[in-house]
Every structure is written in C-alpha cells, then in structure tokens.
Design brief:
- With 384 residues, this protein is α/β, with parallel strands linked by helices.
- The protein folds into 3 domains: 142 residues, NAD(P)-binding Rossmann-like Domain (Rossmann fold), CATH 3.40.50.720; 151 residues, no CATH class; 71 residues, RNA polymerase sigma factor, region 2, helix turn helix motif (Rna Polymerase Sigma Factor, Chain: A, Orthogonal Bundle), CATH 1.10.1740.10.
- The protein contains 16 helices and 11 strands.
- The strands form 2 sheets. Strands 4-3-2-1-5-6-7 form a 7-stranded parallel β-sheet, sandwiched between helices. A 4-stranded mixed β-sheet has the order 9-8-10-11, covered by helices on one side.
- Helix 6 packs parallel to helix 11.
- Bound molecules: NADP nicotinamide-adenine-dinucleotide phosphate.
- The site of NADP nicotinamide-adenine-dinucleotide phosphate has 26 residues, from helix 1 and helix 6.
Length: 384
C-alpha cells in the first residue's frame, strides 16, 4: 500500500504556508496535513483546521487561543515557545518551515533533532546558524530540502555532481527599483517597495527583495546549504524570474532550472523529492520567452557587497545582519525610516558588533537580541 506522508506546516497562515496547503490539497493520495501553526492569524487557522482537520495546532500568541479551543474540542492546541516542540512531538514525515524571521530557527533545529525531512523556506535558519543547522542534519540523519526557488534550483542542478561545481549563480529579479540610482532610491515609498515585479510574497521578504538584502541572505544560505566557498557564489540580475539559478561546473558547462515564477513548484519538489508530481502550474511559452541577464549595481544596492564581507567574517555577524534588517524593515513598513535608512541601520549595527567566531546557539540568540536592540536604539536616535 502507498504510504501517505504526514506533513506539519509551520507558518501555515503565511504566503508559503498557504501555497503549501494548496499543494497538499491537490495531492490527497500523497500527503496528509497533521499540524499547522501561525503567530496570530486565528481566522486563517480556523479556516485551515476546518478544511484539513489536522490533529494539532500551534499558535504563537496565546491571546486568542481560546477561540480555537472552543471551536475544535478534539484538537490539540499549543502555544508559546515550548508549544512548537509539542506540535513536533508526533509521528511525521515532513516539516515545512515557512515561519518568517529569526523565530524559525529553533523550529528548524527541533525538526532536525526528530530526524524529519525539513522542507526549508525559512532562510533565516541557514543565514544565522548555518553551521549548527547542518550539524544537526548530519547528527540526526535528517534531511534539508530547500524551498527557496533559487536554492531549490541549485539543489536540482547539482544533483549528484557536487564535486564538479565551480560556481553557483543566483539569479535576482532586481526588485521594483532595478535601474534606480542611489539618488532616486532616496525618494521611493513603502507602497512602491511592496510592489514586487514577479513574486507575491510576505512583507519582509518583499522589502528585502527591493533592497537586495534578500539576495545577500540567499548568498549566505547557499554557502551553508551546498558547502561552498564565498568566491563560488555569484549573483546576476534576471528580471523575468524564469531562470531560477544556475550551476557552473569545472568544465565550464552550465545547468540552470527554468519554470514560471510559481512557488508551488519548489514547494512540491521539497515534498516529493526525489520524485516529481504533476501540477497545473502554467507551462513556459518558449516561443515568446525573453530572458535577459545583467550585472548587479552594487553601488546602488550595497547588500551584495555587505553579504560577501559578512560571509568572510562569519561568526555572529550573519545573525546581527538578519536582526538589524528585521528591525529596520519593520520600521520602514511603519514609515519610521526611509528606504535607504534600512541599509544604513544594518551597516551601523554590523559596525558596532564584536564578532564571536564559531558561535554556539546561545551566542547566536544573544547576538540576535543585541542586534535587534542596537538597531531599535539607532532608529530611535535617527527620529530625534
Ligand atoms: N514568499 C515567498 O515567495 C518566499 C520565497 C522563498 C522563501 N521565503 C521565505 O519563507 C519564509 C516565510 O515567508 P512568507 O513570505 O511566507 O512570510 P509571511 O507571509 O509573512 O508568513 C510568515 C508566517 O510566519 C508566521 N510567524 C511570524 N512570526 C512568527 C513567530 N514569532 N512564531 C511563529 N510563527 C510566526 C506567520 O504567522 P501569522 O500569519 O499568524 O502572523 C506566518 O504564518 C521567510 O523566511 C521567507 O524568506 C518566502
């Protein structure tokens, strides 16, 4: 009899979470949703629980938990920091981590400790603690399959040929401000930054795509996922988001992965690997396809230079990079700072940081807290 895989989706109320549920819904003979989680979007959770009937739910904010408890009497309901471990303490095959931000780190580690396949959308886990996350994967014989479209592409292109990799080439759409000078970037508005030309995503990653900080984070993510040297990681602008990334091999041949920009494709691959499942996503219209590639403007978009420096220094710098950016993006979304202030906040916090090499998990948590507090103080001072 065919084994139906049991899946827990963390961050099920977000963009990637909802798309994952869509993939599961279309493949009832392959996947069963047994757990969902969100931070505070109770209405969406209620909708998901009614439709998929999972056995358990985790809600980070305890305030509205009673609403779910009252409505679903047989459901196991967990909350708070420790609740996520309880949600994961059940028979399961795949955990999809689609939580946004640093909050995704411990859930990634806890999933790996239980030996599950981790379908990883939460790039922050790899950015802030890539060495630890990879150690946990090995120690507990778990498996990380990337969900990020670029890393899914690289994963598929490398396949079994990892010893022949020369470079990986991450593609970037360039975001809504591609071609803008630094002067022009001074005046861009939050509403414009939220209009991504090719992808529909959560707010933080959309703003990070506009600053290219998202691409900087993906460079660090690629380093750890694929065991690369810093100078093997290249970035190229490809506005159409059709080629999701490429691998250059030692014989100077290249393999790239193409599809329409639809996150359900890499999500489904992370669930089905090493198999593939049919879907009804659009096909590429190859006769009318235009694909262009451009250099990144590293003067207007400093995030790429910054990411190379951070990879070189390593230690707790990546955690501080992420923490400062989380706070800066939140301040930008709340109209407390301007677009170019985001990178200035990040640079300021990195500059003040005293790096710890080979950090433990505690060091990383401390660096995250320090980075957030320092960024908040800097923003407060900017506003005075
Ligand atoms: N969107 C994309 O196309 C895309 C592509 C590649 C990678 N990613 C990565 O995937 C992750 C999710 O992105 P997204 O665009 O789906 O974000 P999103 O739409 O903002 O969703 C974030 C999810 O995380 C939950 N969450 C937030 N803070 C939490 C906390 N402290 N504890 C528990 N849950 C929390 C949210 O719950 P509530 O809704 O209840 O607040 C929501 O379910 C990010 O790391 C992003 O970089 C996204």
């Amino acid at each position: 009899m065919k084994h139906i895989k049991k899946v827990i989706v963390l961050g099920s109320t977000g963009t990637i979470g909802r798309l994952t549920l869509d993939v599961i819904k279309r493949n009832p003979d392959k996947y069963e949703l047994i757990g969902v989680s969100g931070k505070s979007n109770i209405n969406e959770l209620i909708k998901q629980i009614s439709e998929f009937k999972p056995s358990a739910v985790h809600i980070y904010d305890y305030k509205n938990v009673y609403k779910i408890k009252d409505e679903f009497v047989n459901l196991e309901v967990y909350t708070g920091d420790s609740g996520i471990c309880k949600l994961l303490d059940r028979e399961c095959d795949i955990v999809v981590n689609a939580i946004s931000g640093f909050a995704g780190l411990i859930p990634s580690i806890e999933s790996l400790k239980r030996g599950f396949r981790l379908a990883l959308a939460n790039k922050e886990s790899m950015v802030v603690a890539g060495h630890l996350v990879k150690d946990f994967e090995k120690k507990y014989m778990a498996q990380i399959i990337p969900v990020d479209s670029e890393h899914s592409a690289i994963f598929q292109c490398i396949d079994a040929h990892d010893k022949y990799v020369k470079n990986v080439i991450l593609t970037a759409s360039g975001g809504p401000f591609r071609g803008y000078s630094k002067d022009k970037l001074k005046y861009v508005k939050c509403e414009d930054a939220l209009k991504h030309p090719t992808w529909k995503m959560g707010k933080r990653i959309t703003i990070d795509s506009a600053t290219l900080i998202n691409k900087g984070m993906e460079m660090i993510e690629a380093k750890w996922l694929f065991g690369l040297e810093d100078n093997q990681i290249k970035v190229i602008v490809h506005p159409q988001s059709i080629m999701h990334s490429m691998v250059q091999f030692v014989d100077n041949s290249y393999i790239g992965l193409m599809s329409v920009p639809d996150m359900r494709i890499p999500i489904a691959y992370a669930l089905s690997y090493p198999e593939r499942i049919k879907n009804d996503c659009s096909e590429l219209d190859l006769f009318y396809l235009t694909m262009t590639f451009e250099k990144v403007d590293i003067d207007s978009f400093e995030a790429i230079k910054l990411a190379y420096n951070i990879m070189k220094e390593d230690g707790t710098y990546p955690a501080v990079f992420n923490a400062a950016d989380e706070i800066a993006v939140d301040a930008f979304l709340n109209k407390r700072i301007d677009f170019l202030d985001i990178i200035d906040v990040v640079k300021y916090v990195l500059d003040k940081h005293i790096n710890i090499k080979n950090p433990t998990l505690e060091d990383i948590i401390d660096a995250n807290n320090w980075g957030m507090e320092t960024a908040m103080q800097f923003i407060k001072d900017l506003n005075h």
